[in-house]
Structure formats: C-alpha cells, structure tokens
Design brief:
This protein has helices at 40-47, 77-82, 98-109, 114-127, 143-155, 173-188, 200-203, 223-226, and strands at residues 2-11, 14-24, 29-33, 55-60, 63-66, 83-86, 161-165, 192-196, 208-213, 216-221. It has 232 residues and is α/β, with parallel strands linked by helices. It has a domain at 2-91 and 160-226: Rossmann fold (3-Layer(aba) Sandwich). A 6-stranded mixed β-sheet has the order 6-7-8-3-9-10, sandwiched between helices. The chain has a 4-stranded antiparallel β-sheet with strand order 2-1-4-5.
Length: 232
C-alpha cells in the first residue's frame, strides 16, 4: 500500500529525515516509536503531502509523491482522498456540530449529496460510539469524544490508509482508552494504519514496529520483540 524510498528532508542545515525506506502492506498496522524529536511526526506529514521533502519519493497505492512537490499543489488531491489523518490536536471545526464535521469530507471532497453525506456521518458516529452526540459542537465534547469525531471525519472519505499522529497524547488515561478502543476496532477490520505513538501497549499490538531516532529508522521488527529489547 505504501512504499517510501530514500526519503530525505532538511530544515536548514539539519537533516530531520535521512534516507528513510519503509514499506507498509495492505491491512498492516505499523507503529512508529522512539524519542520525541526523532522525525516520526514529520515522516507522517510527508506521506500525506503536508510537508515537502528534498529527496526520495512516497508511493501510496498508484499515486507517487515526488520530492519538492508543493504542499498546496492540486496534484495532491487524489493522495489526500486516499489517506486520512488524525492529529494530536483534534482540529475540528468549532462552529459545526459533530455530525456536520463528519459530513464535510463526503459533501465537499467526494461531492456526495447532503442526504448521503449525512447518512455516512451518522453511521460513522455510531461506529465510534457517539450516536447521541450528533448535534453537539466541539466545546460541548470531552477530549476523547472530540478525537473520536476526528477519527470518524477522517474515515468519512473511505481512505485506503489512516495516519495517526500521537492521537492520545493530549488525553487523560480514561479518554485515551476510549480512542484506543476505536483504533483497535479499525485495526481488526483490516484498515491499513500507520500510528505514531508513545503508548507501548497499543504499539505491541501492531503488525510491525519501527524505532526512529535522529531522523533515521534505527530498528524494525515484530513489536513485542523490538519494544522489549534495549536500544543498542
């Protein structure tokens, strides 16, 4: 589903990603772990064209993202319809209800009718356990509920790949459990996922884990083995 080849990114003279090579197969859950500042979130944003990179390429399905493609390029529209992303901060539209937030993708990105978009949104809110929150605006929802709305919104365009950038780090343990339960449900349904996380319990349930540090993938392997080994 995803093939990353020799991806390199700089900020000024600093290489924040150095010659990254990574493959994600259909239906896999890939965990990216390692210390803060290691390049995990930057790599995720490069996959979705939210950040540029100077060398290498990213292939998602049949779409190839080349180096130095502007983040505003209209050529990225097919990629962003294929890849859903959930951020650490929820980024919901504050003036819209939960239902309206989830309707945005089908309505405006996929050009579906209002009625069809509403039906999609209702089903996805039910899937994430928020059937009773359709008319609630973000400021009336807990952090865990807001993140679950954000997941439903990302799913509404039927993405082939879901990217999660530390989705529970801004939540207390109870709210984090709510969100992780939804993510486990997605994983069990065969959704292809890349998850940047510091939650080792979740990471150990992934298909494969990659440890990143100083802009490089330093170790890869079965999660329980990799996360049990001391760093070299």
């Amino acid at each position: 589903m995803i093939t990353i080849t020799n991806l390199t990114k700089h900020r000024g003279p600093l290489a924040v990603l150095s010659d990254i090579n990574l493959t994600v197969n259909i239906g896999e859950v890939t965990a990216l772990v390692g210390p803060s500042g290691g390049g995990k979130s930057t790599l995720l944003r490069c996959i979705n064209g939210l950040e540029t990179f100077e060398a290498g390429q990213v292939q998602v399905g049949t779409f190839t993202l080349a180096a130095n493609t502007p983040t505003t390029s209209k050529t990225l529209i097919p990629l962003r319809r294929t890849v859903g992303m959930v951020f650490q901060q929820f980024h919901l539209f504050p003036h819209l209800t939960a239902l309206e937030n989830v309707m945005c993708g089908p309505r405006y990105a996929l050009q579906k009718s209002k009625a069809e978009s509403q039906d999609i949104a209702q089903k996805l809110l039910a899937r994430v356990g928020l059937s009773d929150k359709h008319q609630s605006k973000p400021d009336a929802l807990s952090g865990g509920q807001q993140q679950r709305v954000a997941i439903a919104r990302a799913l509404a365009v039927e993405p082939a790949v879901m990217l999660f950038d530390e989705p529970t780090s801004a939540l207390d343990p109870l709210m984090a459990r709510e969100v992780l339960a939804v993510m486990r449900d997605l994983a069990s349904s065969g959704q292809t996922m890349i998850v940047v996380t510091h939650d080792m319990d979740f990471a150990k349930q992934a298909t494969i884990a990659h440890h990143m540090e100083a802009g490089r993938i330093t170790r890869s392997g079965p999660p329980r083995e990799l996360l049990s080994e001391p760093a070299a």
